[in-house]
Amino acid sequence: MNKILCIYPKDSTTGFLEPLFEDICKRYSATPLLGDPQDDDDYLDKLYELAGQSDTIVFLGHGTSDVLYGVKFNELIHAYNVDFLRGKNLVLFACNSVGFIKKHKLIHALGFGIVPTSDYDAETGKLHSLPLKQLISLDIDYIQQAIVRIWQKTLVEADISDVRRFYSVFSYHINAEIVCCLKEKKQKNFRLIADILYYLKDDMDYIE
Fold first, then answer.
1. Which 3 state secondary structure label does DSSP give 109?
2. Cβ(111)–Cβ(204) under 8 Å?
3. Exposed, middle or buried by CB within 10 Å (0-12, 13-18, 19+), for 126?
4. Radius of gyration of the chain measured on its C-alpha atoms
5. Cα dist from 6 to 19, 55, 58, 178, whole Å
6. How many CB atoms are located within 10 Å of the residue 36 CB?
7. Per-residue model confidence (pLDDT) at position 125
8. C-alpha dist (Å) from residue 164 to 27, 32, 193, 195, 207
9. How far apart are the C-alpha atoms of 24 and 7, rounded to whole Å?
10. What does residue 172 show for φ and ψ, rounded to 5 degrees?
11. Alpha-carbon gap, residue 78 to 203, rounded angstroms
């Protein structure tokens, strides 16, 4: 049986991902790992030991092309310790994780581009040429909820350990969410939200 480790540095900015964390852990009997080294002196020992016992690693949090962050943007996975990810199936749901994967030459990995999920992201982030500053809090809430829906539907239909298929089904459900957003027009900025979801799909990539 494929063993899965789900790393979730939960804080106020990633709280909306908690249903996904719980679903993954329950659905796959995945090993949960909360917190980060700032909270637990033994955290890194636990991380490396659990990763060594796992075939697939899922990360739910923040990132850049250089680093995946722990709680409150403390650096967690970076150039000096990234090797523990090698040889694993990887699903890294974090901003710029596709760049992180490519920079560190990881394989069998699904990564993402910019994912604006907070007011701060809307104010300071850049996603192609989209006017993110037009987003209001209700739009951010809608984007968060859309992401959760996409994940939950994908988890029902695809085994997260089969990362290539997970990528394909995830893309399908993004498309479905875009159609729903444009059809229902629930938000004033529904076209901007649809564009953000489009780039969620277009910027993510599965690296063999």
1. strand
2. yes
3. exposed
4. 16
5. 13, 11, 5, 27
6. 23
7. 86
8. 19, 23, 26, 24, 9
9. 11
10. -60, -45
11. 21
Residue corresponding to tokens 């739009």: 139
Strands 109-111 and 89-93, how do they pair? parallel
> Taking the CB of residue 78, how many other CB atoms lie within 10 A of it?
14
Tokens read off for 39: 């909270």
Distance CA 122, CA 109 (A): 27
pTM for the whole structure: 0.96
21 is written with which tokens? Answer: 């964390």
Residue 1 has pLDDT above 90, yes or no: no
pLDDT at 115 over 90: yes
Evaluate whether 90 touches 108 at the Cβ level (below 8 Å).
Answer: yes
Contact 181, 194 (CB under 8 A): yes
pLDDT tops 80 at residue 127: yes
